[in-house]
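Protocol step 4 of 6: structure prediction from sequence.
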Amino acid sequence: MPIFNPQLDIALSQFAAQPGVTPAQESQLRAAVASDARLLEQWNQDASR
């Protein structure tokens, strides 16, 4: 199971809270990031900065 660090999880939640963003869009974004280990690692690193 992919692990989103707390900072990335907050960033994705903030994205989801934007007007016009649907729960399905948030889910698709999370799934896309989680499906690529290198992308997930990079986003986790970027979010922690």
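Step 5 (inspection) to follow. The chain has a mean pLDDT of 96.
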